[in-house]
Write a structure and sequence with these properties.
The protein is an alpha/beta fold. It has 16 helices and 18 strands.
């Protein structure tokens, strides 16, 4: 996939001057060996110039990892560590950073071989807060070489998302459609996150599209589309227009990315889009998203932002779906009850017209947009990619700015069931434990819009840490509470009716 940063982690070991420096030297060496053995090691750079004991050492280490091209930092407490120098290193390093600490190795070496990094981590965290420095600290940040190697590897998707956000531009086209105020949100939080936003008119896009009339690259894109669709190519007559639109977007990205490295798009798709362009853009959106360039529907800016975060965390295509409709009782009884351990309220259908990448569908067909065709000529609604979403683990999530400009998020892990939807669009039957309560006391109670991003796999842990790191208050990160754990707004008498 394109459109994502490559993480290079600078590993800097620190030492308090009244502890043996050799502890940090040897423990760093063992950590690097363990990481290289377990993972490929390409993304880990061991700072060789010094063990940081002082502010002068801090400056030397900082210059070294910058010169090596490191864009993420791991501060490793090989012993108790110097809380001033180590936190100054984090302060002056511009990328994401993590603090971890060495565990003691042996009960037979607890005199000269005792490093007390367990204690030093407390001082490090206290000093980080004194200096208002953001840093990722794992759930249990103390371990041996193998444990710490795993912690660094777990840090990579978090670091990738934070780096990507710092150099992201979201390009939007047009205001949200009428009655889609749910997708509207203040853009101030984008700037607070370091994200740039370029808002454009639909007329700008329409003009750019017609500048690509008869573009000589169109046949090659059409051929790609034909190969991707295979037997699902049910609307071959629309492919040249879709190819022209794809070229319009990809050229716009290159011409408008400016100084930013990464791009996501919040696109317009109705109500005037179909009648003026002569198609719907769903399939093109799916193709760009599969390449790592998320394209949200209905000018959902925070939907595009959420998709981009999920793409970086999962290093895979994501999608954006309506949390759409309940599963009918008869379908539940016939295909789910007794076969899967979910109640009917745990299930729902996630749907969008046809924006999900073909590789995430059981099978796909190019069709027309049925909802739009109820009030428009069918021929101008062609361009959706229909099919049931492939079964497997998923994470439903979203990052949102509230109307009063506060960051809020939710995360819920579950799965797409291997059950035919019997419906249309890019759609799947989703099952999330305790979804009914989550729907009421997080999605409804917290005022989230109907669009949710979907990552294909369980990435709740990583997304939670990303949201914390970028400044979402932990009390504003909703998740599906297990049975027996009450939401603050949940009626305590409901369960005894």
């Amino acid at each position: 996939m394109t459109n994502k940063p490559k993480v290079k982690v600078g590993l800097v070991a620190v030492s308090r001057d009244c502890f043996p420096e050799s502890l940090s030297v040897n423990r760093r060496k063992n950590l690097v060996e363990a990481y290289t053995k377990k993972y490929d090691g390409e993304e880990l750079y061991e700072c060789p110039v010094c063990i940081v004991e002082s502010e002068i050492h801090m400056v030397q280490a900082l210059e070294d990892i910058k010169a090596a091209g490191c864009n993420a930092l791991v501060v490793y407490l090989g012993n108790f560590g110097p809380e001033i120098s180590e936190t100054l290193l984090a302060k002056h390093f511009e990328g994401p950073k993590m603090f971890i600490a060495a565990a003691e190795e042996s009960g037979s070496d607890l005199i000269q071989g005792r490093g007390d990094a367990y204690c030093g981590m407390l001082n490090a965290s206290y000093n980080l807060k004194l200096r208002n420095i953001k840093a990722y600290i794992p759930e249990y940040p103390v371990g041996d070489a193998e444990d710490c190697a795993d912690m660094i590897h777990d840090f990579l998707p978090i670091a990738r998302a934070v780096i990507g956000l710092s150099s992201l531009k979201i390009i939007s086209f047009g205001p949200r459609p009428l009655n889609f105020l749910a997708c509207n949100a203040p853009i101030k939080q984008l700037y607070n996150l370091g994200v740039e936003i370029e808002e454009n008119s639909e007329l700008d896009l329409f003009e750019a599209f017609h500048k690509h009339d008869h573009d000589e690259r169109i046949p090659a894109i059409v051929k790609e589309m034909e190969e991707e669709l295979g037997a699902g190519n049910k609307k071959p007559e629309i492919l040249s227009k879709l190819a022209q639109y794809e070229l319009t977007l990809t050229d716009w990205i290159e011409e408008h990315r400016g100084y930013r490295e990464y791009v996501a798009i919040a696109g317009k798709c109705w109500p005037a889009f179909q009648t003026q362009f002569g198609f719907v853009p769903c399939y093109v959106n799916s193709r760009l998203t599969a390449r790592g360039i998320p394209v949200s529907c209905e000018v959902d800016i925070y939907g595009a932002l959420s998709e981009f975060i999920g793409t970086l965390v999962s290093e895979d295509a994501v999608t954006l779906l309506d949390i759409n409709n309940s599963v009918p009782k008869d379908l539940y009884k016939e295909d789910i009850q007794g076969k899967f351990d979910y109640t009917q309220k745990d299930t729902f259908m996630g749907f969008h017209c046809g924006n999900t990448a073909s590789g995430k569908l059981v099978s796909c067909e190019m069709k027309y947009q049925m909802i739009m065709a109820r009030s428009l000529p069918e021929e101008v609604t062609q361009g959706t990619l229909e099919g049931d979403i492939a079964p497997g683990e998923i994470t439903f999530y979203r990052l949102q700015s509230t109307a009063d400009n506060k960051l809020r998020a939710y995360i819920a892990q579950g799965e797409v069931l291997p059950v035919a939807t019997r419906s249309f669009g890019s759609i799947g039957i989703f099952a999330i434990p305790e979804m009914g309560r989550f729907y009421r006391h997080v999605l409804i109670e917290k005022g989230f819009p109907h669009h949710g991003a979907v990552a294909f796999g369980h990435f709740g842990r990583e997304l939670y840490e990303v949201f914390k790191y970028i400044g979402v208050p932990v009390e504003e990160i909703g998740y599906n509470q297990p049975a027996g754990v009450r939401y603050p707004t949940e009626n305590p008498f409901e369960s005894i009716r």
